[in-house]
Protein backbone atom coordinates (compact mmCIF):
# COMPACT_ATOMS: atom_id res chain seq x y z
CA UNK A 1 0.00 0.00 0.00
CA UNK A 2 1.08 3.58 -0.61
CA UNK A 3 1.46 5.37 2.71
CA UNK A 4 -1.33 7.73 3.78
CA UNK A 5 1.04 10.67 3.27
CA UNK A 6 1.90 9.46 -0.24
CA UNK A 7 -1.66 8.51 -1.21
CA UNK A 8 -2.34 10.56 -4.35
CA UNK A 9 -5.41 12.64 -5.13
CA UNK A 10 -6.16 13.55 -8.70
CA UNK A 11 -6.80 12.14 -12.17
CA UNK A 12 -4.99 9.38 -14.04
CA UNK A 13 -5.29 9.33 -17.84
CA UNK A 14 -5.44 5.74 -19.06
CA UNK A 15 -5.39 4.39 -22.62
CA UNK A 16 -7.90 1.54 -22.27
CA UNK A 17 -7.14 -1.67 -24.12
CA UNK A 18 -9.73 -3.49 -26.24
CA UNK A 19 -11.62 -6.30 -24.52
CA UNK A 20 -11.61 -4.66 -21.08
CA UNK A 21 -14.54 -3.00 -19.35
CA UNK A 22 -14.07 0.37 -17.66
CA UNK A 23 -14.54 -1.45 -14.32
CA UNK A 24 -11.68 -3.81 -15.25
CA UNK A 25 -9.38 -0.78 -15.57
CA UNK A 26 -10.55 0.61 -12.22
CA UNK A 27 -9.90 -2.75 -10.54
CA UNK A 28 -6.41 -2.94 -12.09
CA UNK A 29 -5.45 0.53 -10.85
CA UNK A 30 -6.86 -0.16 -7.38
CA UNK A 31 -4.76 -3.30 -7.21
CA UNK A 32 -1.56 -1.77 -8.61
CA UNK A 33 -1.70 1.36 -6.46
CA UNK A 34 -3.19 -0.28 -3.37
CA UNK A 35 -5.91 2.42 -3.26
CA UNK A 36 -9.61 1.70 -2.90
CA UNK A 37 -11.00 5.11 -3.84
CA UNK A 38 -10.83 5.00 -7.64
CA UNK A 39 -13.63 5.91 -10.05
CA UNK A 40 -13.94 6.46 -13.80
CA UNK A 41 -15.45 9.18 -15.96
CA UNK A 42 -17.51 7.98 -18.90
CA UNK A 43 -17.85 4.28 -19.64
CA UNK A 44 -16.07 2.79 -22.65
CA UNK A 45 -17.52 -0.41 -24.12
CA UNK A 46 -15.20 -3.46 -24.26
CA UNK A 47 -14.66 -3.07 -28.04
CA UNK A 48 -13.57 0.55 -27.55
CA UNK A 49 -10.04 1.71 -26.78
CA UNK A 50 -8.63 5.04 -25.77
CA UNK A 51 -8.94 7.71 -23.15
CA UNK A 52 -10.47 6.78 -19.81
CA UNK A 53 -10.20 9.31 -16.99
CA UNK A 54 -9.76 7.71 -13.57
CA UNK A 55 -10.38 9.79 -10.46
CA UNK A 56 -8.15 8.92 -7.51
CA UNK A 57 -8.78 9.72 -3.83
CA UNK A 58 -10.26 13.22 -3.46
CA UNK A 59 -10.25 13.41 -7.26
CA UNK A 60 -13.58 11.58 -7.15
CA UNK A 61 -15.12 14.91 -6.06
CA UNK A 62 -14.58 16.34 -9.57
CA UNK A 63 -15.90 13.24 -11.34
CA UNK A 64 -19.22 14.82 -12.38
CA UNK A 65 -17.42 17.89 -13.76
CA UNK A 66 -15.10 15.75 -15.85
CA UNK A 67 -17.93 13.55 -17.12
CA UNK A 68 -19.82 16.60 -18.37
CA UNK A 69 -17.12 17.56 -20.87
CA UNK A 70 -17.16 17.04 -24.63
CA UNK A 71 -15.56 13.93 -26.13
CA UNK A 72 -13.76 13.18 -29.39
CA UNK A 73 -13.86 9.73 -30.99
CA UNK A 74 -12.30 8.08 -34.02
CA UNK A 75 -14.32 5.14 -35.34
CA UNK A 76 -15.29 2.88 -38.21
CA UNK A 77 -18.84 1.91 -39.13
CA UNK A 78 -19.75 -1.01 -41.35
CA UNK A 79 -22.70 -0.58 -43.69
CA UNK A 80 -25.14 -3.32 -44.67
CA UNK A 81 -25.87 -4.97 -41.30
CA UNK A 82 -27.66 -3.89 -38.13
CA UNK A 83 -27.03 -5.67 -34.81
CA UNK A 84 -28.72 -6.07 -31.44
CA UNK A 85 -26.06 -3.92 -29.76
CA UNK A 86 -25.49 -1.50 -32.66
CA UNK A 87 -21.84 -2.66 -32.73
CA UNK A 88 -19.93 -5.69 -33.99
CA UNK A 89 -20.39 -7.62 -30.73
CA UNK A 90 -24.13 -8.01 -31.18
CA UNK A 91 -26.15 -10.55 -33.14
CA UNK A 92 -27.02 -9.51 -36.68
CA UNK A 93 -30.65 -8.41 -36.88
CA UNK A 94 -30.85 -7.59 -40.58
CA UNK A 95 -28.60 -7.43 -43.63
CA UNK A 96 -29.23 -5.21 -46.63
CA UNK A 97 -27.26 -4.62 -49.83
CA UNK A 98 -24.94 -1.61 -49.77
CA UNK A 99 -25.53 0.62 -52.80
CA UNK A 100 -22.71 2.27 -54.72
CA UNK A 101 -22.50 5.33 -52.51
CA UNK A 102 -20.52 8.41 -53.43
CA UNK A 103 -18.61 10.49 -50.90
CA UNK A 104 -21.36 13.11 -51.28
CA UNK A 105 -24.02 10.50 -50.38
CA UNK A 106 -22.13 9.52 -47.23
CA UNK A 107 -21.50 13.13 -46.26
CA UNK A 108 -25.20 13.97 -46.69
CA UNK A 109 -26.08 11.21 -44.20
CA UNK A 110 -23.50 12.46 -41.67
CA UNK A 111 -24.82 16.01 -42.15
CA UNK A 112 -28.22 14.91 -40.82
CA UNK A 113 -26.58 14.28 -37.44
CA UNK A 114 -24.73 17.47 -36.66
CA UNK A 115 -25.54 20.34 -34.33
CA UNK A 116 -28.42 19.73 -31.91
CA UNK A 117 -30.63 16.67 -32.25
CA UNK A 118 -32.28 13.91 -30.24
CA UNK A 119 -30.77 10.46 -29.91
CA UNK A 120 -32.54 7.37 -28.55
CA UNK A 121 -30.24 5.39 -26.22
CA UNK A 122 -29.65 1.78 -27.31
CA UNK A 123 -31.21 -1.08 -25.33
CA UNK A 124 -27.74 -2.40 -24.56
CA UNK A 125 -26.55 0.52 -22.45
CA UNK A 126 -26.01 1.45 -18.81
CA UNK A 127 -28.88 3.95 -18.86
CA UNK A 128 -31.52 2.92 -16.34
CA UNK A 129 -35.23 2.23 -16.75
CA UNK A 130 -37.13 1.97 -13.47
CA UNK A 131 -33.81 1.69 -11.65
CA UNK A 132 -32.63 -1.24 -13.80
CA UNK A 133 -29.83 -0.81 -16.38
CA UNK A 134 -31.15 -1.27 -19.91
CA UNK A 135 -28.54 -3.92 -20.74
CA UNK A 136 -29.95 -6.16 -17.98
CA UNK A 137 -33.44 -5.86 -19.48
CA UNK A 138 -31.98 -6.55 -22.94
CA UNK A 139 -30.41 -9.78 -21.65
CA UNK A 140 -33.91 -10.87 -20.60
CA UNK A 141 -35.11 -10.25 -24.14
CA UNK A 142 -37.07 -7.16 -23.14
CA UNK A 143 -37.34 -3.98 -25.15
CA UNK A 144 -38.69 -0.88 -23.40
CA UNK A 145 -39.46 2.66 -24.51
CA UNK A 146 -36.40 4.88 -24.13
CA UNK A 147 -36.70 8.61 -23.83
CA UNK A 148 -34.67 10.38 -26.53
CA UNK A 149 -31.89 12.56 -25.13
CA UNK A 150 -30.70 15.90 -26.45
CA UNK A 151 -27.15 15.67 -27.84
CA UNK A 152 -24.82 17.81 -29.92
CA UNK A 153 -22.25 17.08 -32.61
CA UNK A 154 -19.80 19.99 -32.85
CA UNK A 155 -17.96 18.66 -35.87
CA UNK A 156 -17.20 15.48 -37.75
CA UNK A 157 -14.88 14.37 -40.52
CA UNK A 158 -15.04 11.42 -42.89
CA UNK A 159 -11.52 10.01 -42.87
CA UNK A 160 -11.92 7.25 -45.44
CA UNK A 161 -14.50 5.28 -47.41
CA UNK A 162 -13.81 1.68 -48.41
CA UNK A 163 -17.32 0.24 -48.67
CA UNK A 164 -18.82 -1.25 -46.66
CA UNK A 165 -16.58 0.55 -44.11
CA UNK A 166 -16.55 4.28 -43.36
CA UNK A 167 -13.87 5.82 -41.10
CA UNK A 168 -14.83 8.97 -39.21
CA UNK A 169 -14.00 11.35 -36.37
CA UNK A 170 -16.70 13.02 -34.26
CA UNK A 171 -16.58 15.66 -31.52
CA UNK A 172 -19.74 15.37 -29.43
CA UNK A 173 -21.43 16.30 -26.16
CA UNK A 174 -21.65 14.14 -23.06
CA UNK A 175 -24.15 11.28 -23.09
CA UNK A 176 -23.59 10.64 -26.80
CA UNK A 177 -23.75 7.06 -28.08
CA UNK A 178 -21.41 6.57 -31.04
CA UNK A 179 -22.97 3.12 -31.62
CA UNK A 180 -26.34 4.79 -32.13
CA UNK A 181 -24.71 7.46 -34.33
CA UNK A 182 -23.38 4.68 -36.61
CA UNK A 183 -26.75 2.88 -36.59
CA UNK A 184 -28.68 6.05 -37.44
CA UNK A 185 -26.30 7.02 -40.27
CA UNK A 186 -26.81 3.54 -41.72
CA UNK A 187 -30.58 4.04 -41.61
CA UNK A 188 -30.21 7.43 -43.31
CA UNK A 189 -28.29 5.67 -46.10
CA UNK A 190 -31.01 3.03 -46.42
CA UNK A 191 -28.79 -0.01 -45.83
CA UNK A 192 -28.24 -0.09 -42.07
CA UNK A 193 -24.92 -0.04 -40.21
CA UNK A 194 -23.17 -0.98 -37.01
CA UNK A 195 -20.07 0.27 -35.23
CA UNK A 196 -16.97 -1.78 -36.10
CA UNK A 197 -14.35 -0.03 -33.98
CA UNK A 198 -14.05 2.98 -31.68
CA UNK A 199 -11.30 4.93 -29.97
CA UNK A 200 -11.80 7.89 -27.61
CA UNK A 201 -9.05 10.39 -28.33
CA UNK A 202 -10.06 13.38 -26.19
CA UNK A 203 -12.21 14.30 -23.21
CA UNK A 204 -12.41 18.03 -22.58
CA UNK A 205 -8.79 19.30 -22.56
CA UNK A 206 -7.36 15.83 -21.90
CA UNK A 207 -5.74 13.86 -24.74
CA UNK A 208 -5.03 10.13 -25.07
CA UNK A 209 -1.51 11.08 -26.22
CA UNK A 210 -0.73 11.85 -22.57
CA UNK A 211 -2.26 8.65 -21.16
CA UNK A 212 -0.56 5.64 -19.57
CA UNK A 213 -1.32 2.31 -21.22
CA UNK A 214 -2.81 -0.71 -19.49
CA UNK A 215 0.40 -2.66 -20.18
CA UNK A 216 2.45 0.06 -18.50
CA UNK A 217 0.16 -0.02 -15.46
CA UNK A 218 0.67 -3.78 -15.22
CA UNK A 219 4.46 -3.57 -15.61
CA UNK A 220 5.58 -0.36 -13.88
CA UNK A 221 6.28 0.12 -10.14
CA UNK A 222 3.39 1.74 -8.26
CA UNK A 223 5.48 4.83 -7.46
CA UNK A 224 6.00 5.41 -11.17
CA UNK A 225 2.28 5.03 -11.86
CA UNK A 226 1.49 7.42 -8.99
CA UNK A 227 3.77 10.05 -10.57
CA UNK A 228 1.53 10.00 -13.66
CA UNK A 229 -1.48 11.14 -11.64
CA UNK A 230 -2.43 14.76 -12.34
CA UNK A 231 -2.94 16.71 -9.12
CA UNK A 232 -6.22 18.53 -8.55
CA UNK A 233 -4.57 21.96 -9.14
CA UNK A 234 -3.13 20.62 -12.43
CA UNK A 235 -6.56 19.33 -13.44
CA UNK A 236 -8.13 22.68 -12.62
CA UNK A 237 -5.55 24.57 -14.70
CA UNK A 238 -5.93 22.18 -17.65
CA UNK A 239 -9.70 22.59 -17.60
CA UNK A 240 -9.27 26.38 -17.63
CA UNK A 241 -11.21 26.59 -14.35
Structural features, described:
This protein is α+β, with helices and mostly antiparallel strands and 241 residues long. The protein folds into 2 domains: 10-68 and 205-239, Pseudouridine synthase; 71-202, Pseudouridine synthase (2-Layer Sandwich), CATH 3.30.2350. It is built from 8 helices and 14 strands. The strands form 3 sheets. Strands 1, 2, 3, 4, 7, 10, 11, 12, 13 and 14 form a 10-stranded mixed beta sheet that branches. The longest helix has 12 residues, at 22-33.
Overview features:
14 strands, 8 helices, Pseudouridine synthase, alpha+beta, two-stranded antiparallel ribbon, 241 residues
The number of distinct β-strands equals 14
The average pLDDT score comes to 89
Distance between the termini: 32 Å
Structural class determined from secondary elements: alpha+beta
User: Helical percent range?
Assistant: 25-40%
Number of helices: 8
For the largest beta-sheet, the strand count, sense and barrel status come to: 10 strands, mixed
Give helix and strand order, one letter per element, not per position.
Answer: EHEEHEEEHEEEHEEHEEEHHH
Instruction: Give the CATH class of the largest domain.
Output: Alpha Beta
Tell me the CATH architecture of the largest domain.
Answer: 2-Layer Sandwich
Strand content: 25-35%
Unreliable spans are none
Q: What would the CATH topology of the largest domain be? A: Pseudouridine synthase
Shape: elongated
CATH superfamily of the largest domain: Pseudouridine synthase
Query: What is the radius of gyration?
Result: 19 Å
Number of domains: 2
Amino acid sequence: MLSVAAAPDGVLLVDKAEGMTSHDVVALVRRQLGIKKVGHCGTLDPIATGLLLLTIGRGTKVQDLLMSEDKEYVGTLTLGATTTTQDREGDVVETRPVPQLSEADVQAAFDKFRGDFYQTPPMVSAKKHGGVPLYKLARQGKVVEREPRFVHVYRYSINGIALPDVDFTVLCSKGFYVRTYAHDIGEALGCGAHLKSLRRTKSGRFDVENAITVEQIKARPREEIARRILSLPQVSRMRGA
